[in-house]
Amino acid sequence: MNKEIVVLIGGPSSGKTTLIEALKEKGHTCYPEVSREVIREAQEQGIEQLFLEKPLLFSELLLEGRKRQFKEALNEEANIVFLDRGIPDVLAYMHYIGDSYPAFFDKACQDHKYSAIFVLPPWKEIYVSDAERYENYEQAVLIHEHLMETYKNYGYSITEVPKDTVENRVDFIMKHLVK
């Protein structure tokens, strides 16, 4: 079996982290969202919202973290590795705020190809804000649209995970991977 690097994408508070945790509990190899770590480190240095104050620096830190995750995933013993967001997410967020970025961002997306992309659609009933998530629901919907467009621009086929229980969402993903 070939190595499968599977990415879960979606706007803020669509259930990605919960799904990653459920996959981990079932024994799957999973990598967490990089941005929460970057945000916390910036807040410890007195920068409340690095993404808003220095979007390019924030995005460069995310890009490096996600490239590192990709390389680590390739070296995992597991045949399937799940990632909470992928490299094209960085570009989607830059598009969302209307900011430009250096050409190496695009090259990173071209050089690091994922096996499968699953999107969790915006889900108002489960939407929650927290210390690292500043977007409101309407902004989350716009981010979702940018994510879809960006991943499609890189040639990915995207499978939408239905709004359902966590268990059913896990089953849905696994059934689509084991074809």
From TrEMBL:
UniProt GO molecular function: ATP binding
Keyword ATP-binding appears in the UniProt entry: yes
Entry keywords, A to Z: ATP-binding, Nucleotide-binding
Domain NadR/Ttd14 AAA: 6-169
Domain of life (superkingdom): Bacteria
SUPFAM superfamilies for the chain: P-loop containing nucleoside triphosphate hydrolases (SSF52540)
Protein name in UniProt: ATP-binding protein
